[in-house]
Structures are given as C-alpha cells and as structure tokens.
Amino acid sequence: MLWSSVGKTKRRGERGNLVVISGLMAIPLSMIVVMTLEMVSLSNERARMQAAVDAAALAGARELAVAGGVARNASGFAEAFALNQVTDLAPRVTMNFTASQSIDGGFQVSGIGLRGSFFGNMVPPGGFKIEVNAIAEALNQQPLCVLALPENEEDEEERSGLSAISRSSVQANYCLVHSNGSITTEKKATITAGAIQASRTAIGAGYSPAANNGALKVKDPFRERAIKRTGVCPKTPVSPRVVNGSSTANIGAGAHWEAIKISGKATVTLGPGDHYFCDAVTVEGSGTLQGTDVVMIFHDDKTFTAAESSKISLTGRTSGEWAGFVIVTTRKNVQPMEISSIFVDSLLGTIYLPNAELLINAPGTVAEDSKWSVVVAKDIILDKNAKLVINTDYAGSGVPVPLGVGDKAGNAKSGARLRQ
Predict the structure, then answer these.
(1) Domain total for the chain?
(2) What is the per-residue DSSP string for 166-221?
(3) Cβ distance 135 to 61 under 8 Å?
(4) Are residues 85 and 175 in the same domain?
(5) Domain span including residue 117
(6) Which of 53-67, 107-121, 370-384 reaches the highest mean pLDDT?
(7) Measured distance CA(284)–CA(193) in Å, rounded
(8) Same domain (yes/no): 131, 161
(9) How does pLDDT run across 29-39, given as a tens digit for each residue?
(10) How far apart are CA 161 and CA 320, in angstroms?
(11) Is residue 5 in some structural domain?
(12) Taking Cα atoms as reference points, which of 85, 60, 88 lies closest to residue 74?
C-alpha cells in the first residue's frame, strides 16, 4: 500500500511537471508562429509596395514622355498612382511615396512604409521600415519622325524595317528613329538621331547614339484613317498625260484618272488641295514637280517615282482632312515609292506608306530644305550614298503636325521600361 501511494504521487508529480513544461514551451512556440506569420505578412507587404512603385515609375515615365508633359505633373500623378495600388495596406502600414525625374532622364519613384513590430515596437525599435525604389525610362521621349512598320517583323530571317546601305545615311538629330522590326546598316552607312531603337535588333555599326534593341513596338499612328476612295477611279485605263520639253502645266486638286509623266525640262505645279492619283506619277530627266499646300494620295498599286535629275519640291496640306500629310498610299498599295533623284529638296509633311516601301537610292540629299518631315512606311531603304535629312522645326512651317507623330506622338505613352 505504501509503495502504491508513493508511486501514484510520483506519477502525478511527473504529469504536473509535464504540464508546466509544456505550458512553458508553448509560449516560445506561439511566439515563433506569430513572428513567422508576421514576417510572411511583412514580406508580402514589401512585395506589394515594390510592385506599386514599379507600376508608378512606368506610368510616370509614360506621362513625362507625352509632348508637353512636365516633371511636376508626372511626379504628382505617379505618387498618387502608387498609393492607389496599396490602399488596402493603409490600416497596418503608414506609407509615403515620392517621385521625381532623375538627372539622366529616368523617372524614379521611392516608397517608405512603417508598420508595428513585436513587443510594442521594441523589436526592432520603432517598428519595421519598408523601403522600395524603382526607376523607369521612357523609350519615346524624342519626337517620332521615322517609323518603319515591317510586315514580316516576326520572321527571324527577314531584315525588314529600316536599312541604310553603301554610305547612305539618315540624319535626324533631334527626333526618334524607330523600327518595329530590325534596323540594318551596311557598307559604311550611318544613322544619326536623337534616339534610335528597334523592336528586334539593330544590325551593323554607324549608329549615333547607340541603338536600343528590344524596344516596345509603336502602333501605326494613322491605322484608323480611311484612305481609299471607292468609285473614283475608272475600271479601264486612261491614256497617260505626258508633260515634256520645256512646257509647263498646272493641275488642280481632285481625282486624276490618267498616269502622269513629267520629263525633259517640263514643270508641273499641283494646285492647293488633295490630289488622288488613280495611276502612277513619274518625274524624270530634268523635270520638276512642285506644289504648296498639297497631298498626293496614290490608289492601289500606283507608284510615285522621282528619277534622274528631276526636281521635287512639295509642301504638305495646311488644313482639311489631310492636314500635315504630303504623300500617302492606300492600305492595299504594296508598290515601292522610289526617290532616285539628287534634287529632292523639300518634302514638308508626313509621308505615310502603311504597306509600301520607301526606296531612296541616289547620291543626293532628300528633304534637307523642309522645315520638318516625318516618314511612316512598311520598310524604308536607303542605298547608293543617299542622305535623308529629317528636320524638326514643327512650329516654323505653317503645316500642322498630325496627331501621333512628331511632337504630337501620343503613342509615346506606351513606350517605357523599368531600368531598376
């Protein structure tokens, strides 16, 4: 009996000790669980804040890139944008975001968050501090002046887009040269611009500044425009109109059924307005084609050729539906537009060839006397020491810049990437 009572008492004591020990162990285990959960929550909050500044930096860079955008407006926009991404964290995290444009042109957004820590903010002292930072850069900060829209931009073997060959050059010192495909320079050709970028690859040398590869694609800024005129062109060919010798001719605006050929020392002046050509226009010999306040629109598969020593001097429309344009082709037109003359001094306005190639292949300077020029074409090819000069005096010409290009390149809002 005595031993039995002693054994029971001993077992009850051991059980009591286990309860006490278990209770004592439960406290640190509970603390470990709570701390683990808090650290996981802290990690998630940091990730949320980082995502917020990433998105805000991209948004701010796009906003800053818009023509007329200023750093002050972009900064306020980005700060509010970041805070709106994490409003649900506000009950437990005090957050502050700041945004600014950096010296090198990037756009920076920083965030600081404060949340409570363990034991009355004693571990760590003052609570947890979350610091996040992101820097983005706008890819289209320069006015958009050359845009290649290659049809086969996904074909790895196709060097489509913009090509300069045999000492040819593009000189666009204060604007953006962009290809949705590749850019190629060969045989000492050069491209100089405010910025140069290709959605695929820049091949070759002679770029100033260095070309940016893998840039975001730029959408066709005029993709919604209706170009083709139905029921205007005759179904059967009309005899061509030939202006040659030393003769002169004035052609009023409207639809032109016949092919037009200018040769010898003849001069043709286009009257102000929209000219819709149902057939080809060829200028050769020492012929001259000139016009002020005009746009030349070419019907399906009809071409424009400036050859030999011909002289071309065209100033785009100042008003109307085609204000700011000088040469346009319909979307079904896939025929190359060729400039092989050495005397193309003025092409003031926008050249828009959505599915056609612009070929410049003569040892001369093109568009040098234009206040400004913009080229948007499927492919752009320069060869045989040709030089395309793109000026950017948008305010000094009297010809308005169409929305989507030049200093009105609203599509720049889509061109930004994170640098850090």
Answers:
(1) 2
(2) TT-EEEEEEEEEEESSEEEEETT-EEEEEEEEESS-EESS-EESPPBSSPPPPP-T
(3) no
(4) no
(5) 15-138
(6) 370-384
(7) 31
(8) no
(9) 555 555 566 67
(10) 30
(11) no
(12) 60
